[in-house]
Amino acid sequence: MIARWAQTRRRFGWPSAAGLLRRRRTSGALLAGGLLATVVMSVAPSAYSAPKQSDVTAPRGTLTIAIPQYPPSLDPASGQNAYSDFFDLAYAPLIVKEPNGEFKSGLATSWQYGSDNKSFSIMLRSGVRFSDGSALTAAATKTWIQHEIAFSGGAGAGYFASLSSIDVTGPLSLTLHFSAPTPELELIFSQILEMGEIGSPNATSGKTLTTATDGAGEYMLDASHTVTGESYTYVPNPYYWDKSAVHWKTVVIKVITNPSTVLSALETGQVDVAEVQPITNAAAAKSAGLRVDAPLTLYMALALENRNAAPLSSLLVRQALNYAVDRGPIAKLLGNGYGLAIDQMAVPGDDSYDAALSNYYPYNPAKAKQLLAKAGYPHGFTLPVLSLAAAQQNTLAEALQGQLANVGVTLQPDIVPSVNQYETDIAGTSFPAVTLSWGRLPAVTQYQILWGPNGQSSRPFKSSSRQLNDIYDKLITAPTSTEPTVAKEMQQYLVQNAWYLPVAATPLAEFYRSNISGVNAAPQRNTDYDVEFAPAS
User: Fold this and answer.
1) What is the DSSP letter of 180?
2) Do residues 41 and 113 make contact, with C-beta atoms less than 8 angstroms apart?
3) pLDDT digits (tens, 9 = 90+) for 99-138
4) Exposed (0-12), middle (13-18) or buried (19+): which is 403, by Cβ within 10 Å?
5) What secondary structure letter does DSSP report for 104?
6) Residue 173 in contact with residue 123, Cβ under 8 Å?
7) How many CB atoms sit inside 10 A of residue 149's CB?
8) With a threshold of 0.85, does the pTM exceed it?
9) 221 DSSP β-pair partners
10) CA torsion sign, 75 to 79 to 83 to 88?
11) Domains of the chain by range and CATH?
12) In 375-417, where does DSSP find H-type helix?
């Protein structure tokens, strides 16, 4: 499911605000420099034993998926995971992130970090072939990573910003060398961030991947039955190494933008799974006998950005704003009954989530007024706020406007109609506070793109905190065993110092028919993976 995040430009490793509205992946910002640290480690999943031919279930019929948007390019090197469905079917990743959040082998059978997370060695699965019949090799993988880095406007340049060299150490082995600590590579090389979805060098050199596929995944595009922007047909890759994972004779992705049309198509069986659907249609979907999957995807919050000037320079003021909001009703409104009221920029399943911070700011308008008076604002103040007429940001702004008025704070939302205008304004200094619809990401990535000195919430006003920076330095060098503790320390700092006014975590929904299994979005992986969709019986 699309996550999505709000984000600063991917060109530098920061996602765009448009991505914010439509991102599909749990973690998708570009990671510049160091990432979530791990100890030097190797991963060697248990050996895969190919099933006997007699044990392999033959693919069944046709799976039809409805999605409201289509990609400008079918090349997964773009890293545009709003379009992950189109990529995932044809391109297997080096590493697979499972619904429980763990990583398992994909095209890679093992991987290992070097000293200080400045190198990453990969051992590839033998006998893998792309859909053109050519073999997956270490040299092909190196060529693909170089293609990702060179892809114009793509994510690779940011993900691999500190990559200094790639050594091919054997036919199926290679080592990446970095100039700075770069953990979190399992995520980068998974289907979540797509950089491990390797394509054939033949297609890369032939520049055919805009309108065709040539991966090592379960399926491949059938161009003869595909109409760009309308319907995309995939058929089994005859060379895929694990025949038991190919569940369908045909997979069709239909581009349907009208949610009502999607519901009708689901009810009549013309569509089996519909992704990126408005949660407001969940009740109607259930009434029609459909199943609903609605993992929490976005944080809805007010970023209190100009902490260098009054009134937001006062901690008392920022805390007062947090006490002044009754989050429950707003969460119910924004999430259509599926939302979660939050006091922190994290939810269960996130590495920085701290249960002790739940209800840290209970609704207490009287206390809010006391804090405002103590800060020198007994009659409140006026707060200009930037908001967007999309992703329910405008609804959030209007709800906050009503509640903050009860403690004397006059919220003045400027609700802009376009993402481009929002991105322009959010980079400036005209608005001390902005509404966010921000996606779930690891704490280290959130620091890099949101609350760190180069992040969206701090860069415009040059806001920074030595204490927060020190926590980040600990985070990128923390061993795996202590990383969650350090991530929680970062969240504690943000909540206690009220850098944000978090209000709700909300879902994007998908609906599916009861004869479909494998719709596996979960708190630890809040997106499905289309190749897991299978007949229910």
Assistant:
1) S
2) yes
3) 998 999 999 999 999 888 889 999 999 999 999 999 999 9
4) buried
5) E
6) yes
7) 18
8) no
9) 234
10) positive
11) 31-43+59-293+513-535 (3.40.190.10), 296-507 (3.10.105.10)
12) 393-405
